[in-house]
Amino acid sequence: MIGAVLLLAAIVVAPGTRADMPYPDDDPFYAVPAGLDGDPAGAVLNSRPISVLGLPLPVMGWQLQYRTTDSAGAAIADMATVMVPATPWLAPGGRPLLSYQIAEDSLGTRCAPSFALRGGRDFSIVNTVLDVPFLAEAMRRGWAVVVSDYEGPRSRFFDGVNSGRAVLDGVRAAKSFVPLGITADSPLGAFGYSGGAFATLWAMQLRASYAPDLMFAGVTSGGVPADIPAIARGVDGGYQAGLAVLILIALARDDPGSGLAATLNDQGRALMAQEATSCGGDLVLHHLFRHVDQYSDTPDLLGQPAFERAARQQELGGWAPDVPLYLYHSNADDVVPVAGFSALVDRYCALGANLTAIHSAVAGHNPAAIVESWGAMNFLADRFAGRPVVPGCTVR
């Protein structure tokens, strides 16, 4: 199954841009409707059926425009893609709904999952395509899936509150969308890896205060981006230096009060303009082996108080999620240092979380995502079946 889907992913990403598939910024369906402030959080504003990935798959799909609230408290219109397998759900209880967070990792809406899942065709869809095998596995198990563009219409990468609220309101929208078939006894779950784990865990940290009406049976997250400065320092100057550039631009753009933008030199300000709508994959290709210090006249930009201040506001761990968690991370992760994950697990445990944390022996960020996903999916399946979790923290 996985091998077949990987082959499908290669086929999907190969063709050039479809002339009939506008980018989100040019698509009237994404336009903000009037009277948004008067709609409740999670309200469905508009919907349309789609062919998932633009292919004749045995999956029914729709795009939902829904109302959410950004980190400044303003009402915004966001997008979610909902999918359900064509096969009937025969197990006891309602069909489970999985909130699946793709690592959007972008500065522009052309990189949003909704564009790729509707059938968009260019390099901007690569992060979504990488998650196709996991989405396929969720639907093979019969689950309905909601994938939100959790960065929102302004593509706010590493904005925890913005992302968390968008995830929760995407679930609200999916639950209320009658054609998806979610019932009162449908269990809820969430899944995210890497950038998707960031959004997933922020959503769970905010659940009790922002969406107490949503009760999650289980949540899994892997390759968790904890200790943002350590991530940036680890990739800076290497083959994934573009990720450090992505973090720098996002934090400077999203938090103007941090003073981070003021530390940039002329080259840094030009960088902000040139890469304003880039995807993470674009940035990795554009900035191989570069150092972010070239964009500032201040030495050690990643160690400056302004950078650390902007990053600190977005770190996970301020609250403990009150849902059963299954977390996993490679001990030899080449993108996200494992030390941050270990510290976050300790923090969650000290705050009273119920979790299982797996320190994986599988080397590498992407290999661990593949190998450890089976345990994550099985954890969700057990929760959906009503099997209880062992209370407290299990770390292995």
Could you estimate the helical fraction of the residues in percent? 25-40%
Annotated CATH homologous superfamily of the largest domain: Alpha/Beta hydrolase fold, catalytic domain
Number of helices: 14
Multimeric organization: single chain
Mean pLDDT: 94
Number of strands: 10
Map the helices and strands.
Elements: H1 2-13, E1 44-50, E2 59-69, E3 75-85, E4 97-101, H2 113-118, H3 126-130, H4 132-140, E5 144-148, H5 160-176, E6 188-193, H6 195-210, E7 216-222, H7 228-235, H8 241-254, H9 266-274, H10 280-286, H11 305-312, E8 325-330, H12 338-350, E9 355-360, H13 365-371, H14 373-384, E10 393-395
Parallel strand pairs: 4-5, 4-6, 6-7, 7-8, 8-9, 9-10
Antiparallel strand pairs: 1-2, 2-3, 3-5
Detailed description of the structure:
The protein is α/β, with parallel strands linked by helices. The protein has two domains: 2-226 and 320-395, Alpha/Beta hydrolase fold, catalytic domain (Rossmann fold); 228-312, 434 Repressor (Amino-terminal Domain) (Orthogonal Bundle). The chain contains 14 helices and ten strands. It has a ten-stranded mixed sheet, with helices on both faces. Helix 5 packs across helix 6, helix 7 (228-235) runs antiparallel to helix 8 (241-254) and helix 8 (241-254) crosses helix 10 (280-286). The longest helix is centred in the middle third of the chain and has 17 residues, at 160-176. The chain is globular. The two termini are 29 Å apart. The model is unreliable at 1-13 (pLDDT under 50).
